[in-house]
Each structure stands twice: as structure tokens, then as C-alpha cells.
Amino acid sequence: MKRITIIIIAVLLAPASAESASTIPDGKAVFERNCSVCHSLNPPPKSAPPIVPIASSYHRQFASKTAGINHMVAFMRSPTKTASKVDPEAIARFGLMPAMSLDEGELHAVAGWVWDQYSPNINKGKGMGAGSGNGSGNCE
What we know:
By secondary structure, the chain is mainly α. It has helices at residues 2-22, 27-34, 51-61, 65-77, 88-94, 104-115.
């Protein structure tokens, strides 16, 4: 009888565990639903800086993924010129992005996905996407 009770409890808890795992937002899906209207993944830009140069900028300016993601989340909640980690030319060209009305989980998921789009090849001093040609033209 004890064994049957344990099996029943395990069966009842299994769907709850699978369901909670599926409620973690997928960063790429959040990007595609909310960000891809303005941001392309790679240059050329749409109406906002491309994601790969943004990721490159964050990798250069933050020592850890956690610090980079936390800053990116705070920036997406309340964008300011002083908090921006992109070349000022990108803001002059595209303007400052609007605050995102995503929930906390979605913000962290998309920020983590953006961080992971880093490409070491883009950080070679040219072709950063903001037109400065000096290697600092990264976008956020």
C-alpha cells in the first residue's frame, strides 16, 4: 500500500514539474515577439541597433554574464542615455529605445539570449554597426 501511495504522488507531481519547467520564458521567442520588429540579429540594422554588436558591447564592458544581464534588464526597464552601453552615435542615429513592459522572467530570458549572441569575430575594431569605424560603435 505504501508503494502505491508513493507511485501515485510521483505521478501527480510529474506533470507539475514538467509544467513549471515549460513556464520559463525562451529568450529567443521573447526576442522574436517583442524585439525583432526593431532589432535585426546582425547588421544591417532595421530601426534599432543589431543584437550581435549589442552583445559584443556587453561582453567588453561586463566581466560576468550575470552583471551584463542585470544591467541589460535594468536598461530595458528604464532606458537612459547615461545607462546605455552603446556608442553614442547609435543613440544619435536610432534614438533611445522605449521602456519594455515585459515581466521579470521575460526580461531576464531575452537579456540572457542577447548576451549569448556574442560573436568574438565582430570585436575586431571594424564593422561594429554604428558607422564610427573606430571599433566602439556597438549598439544596445
